[in-house]
Write a structure and sequence with these properties.
By secondary structure, this protein is an alpha/beta fold. Helix content is about 50%, strand content about 20%. Bound molecules: 3-deoxy-alpha-D-manno-oct-2-ulopyranosonic acid. This is Sialic acid TRAP transporter substrate-binding protein SiaP.
Length: about 325
């Protein structure tokens, strides 16, 4: 039989101290969970697959220690200003683009060039390749932004409110094509043969409706999600840019996490990107029919003409001069 010693006063005191300490530790770890808020702002709508994955996959995974808060439709910061907001310490996360990064780090313009990435898988391999390390390091050093994962946005196609068919870049002469705000985007519009007009994503529907612009370019899931089919007549399947976005987090915020939390955040971002990528690919494969059913003309133009014109425009441009030697060849060789 076990003989229990009577509890001494000293013993009771020690136990009480132990309980109090446990309560303090418990309270402080709870406080940590509540204290970490990961506020993301992005132009994507709440029903865009990237937003859905960030909320459902990323938000769920980090929930034990952080509150993920997604602010969509550029509701916190205007399109193109999220990176600065992170650099200034006013925002924790965003879904950014190579075109936005190219405003600060010109080398990123290589990913804004038409017909460079071949498909979603190529995009992923490029992001994971060793030659991306200096670009990621530069982003951290200059902007205090860590690029966690690459998200597949999709193949961008022309979507016009005009009815005249477009077969080659010459047919886009004089067409006012809405492009997002930065110079890299305007260059792509010109390389396609159009007259680019800068406009934030949030204003595109009205721009198309009122005729301020003749068209816009986006992947099919984005054009469906934003209901552009209600105010346009045709989709020209140029596939001129296999577009990407990066899941980006403030480096300061990331560095404040414990190593275990950092591992979870990284995995959560990779899983969210993979989930969105698969859904985006599935949607892309079936959406042409959706637009046809809406009464739109959906067709392929002369792809060789588009590809050769766009590639030539980039190779002759000042952008190409800023690409690190041999980078394009390495990307193509992957
Ligand atoms: C757009 O403004 O056309 C664009 O597709 C650019 C992308 O980089 C990205 O910002 C995207 O908009 C938004 O996430 C909305 O889908």
């Amino acid at each position: 039989m076990e003989i229990k010693e009577p509890l001494s006063k000293h013993h009771v005191k020690r136990c009480l101290i132990g309980v109090a300490a446990a309560l303090v530790i418990g309270a402080s770890s709870l406080a940590t969970a509540a204290d970490i808020k990961l506020r993301m702002s992005a132009p994507a709508s709440a029903t865009d697959q990237r937003a859905v994955a960030m909320t459902a996959v990323f938000g769920e995974a980090v929930a034990p220690f952080a509150d993920f808060e997604g602010h969509w439709n550029s509701s916190l910061f205007k399109q193109g200003t999220d990176l600065e907001a992170i650099a200034r310490g006013n925002l924790d996360m965003t879904i950014t683009s190579a075109q936005e990064l190219a405003e600060f780090i010109p080398e990123f313009s290589i990913f804004s060039a038409g017909y460079v990435h071949r498909d979603a898988e190529h995009q992923q391999r490029v992001f994971d390749a060793d030659f991306m390390a200096p670009l990621k390091e530069k982003t951290e050093a200059l902007l205090d932004v860590k690029l966690l994962s690459v998200m597949y946005l999709g193949r961008r196609h022309l979507n016009l409110r005009t009815v005249q068919e477009v077969k080659t870049p010459e047919d886009l002469k004089g067409v006012k094509l809405r492009m997002p705000g930065s110079d890299a985007w305007q260059f792509l519009g010109r390389a396609l043969g159009a007259s680019p007009t800068p406009m934030a994503f949030a204003e595109v529907y009205t721009g198309l409706q009122t005729g301020t612009v003749d068209g816009q370019d986006n992947p099919l899931p984005t054009s469906k999600d934003a209901k552009f089919y209600e105010v346009t007549k045709q989709i020209v399947l140029t596939g001129h840019l296999v577009d990407l976005n990066y899941i980006a987090i403030s480096k300061k915020v990331f560095d404040r996490l414990t190593v275990d939390q950092q591992v979870i955040v990284q995995k959560a971002a990779d899983d969210a990107a993979e989930s969105a990528r698969q859904k985006q690919l599935t949607l892309e494969a079936k959406l042409a029919q959706f637009f046809i059913d809406k009464g739109m003309n959906v067709y392929e133009p002369d792809l060789d003409a588009f590809q050769s014109t766009v590639q030539a425009a980039y190779l002759e441009s000042d952008y190409a001069k800023q690409w690190p030697d041999g980078l394009l060849e390495k990307i193509n060789a992957l």
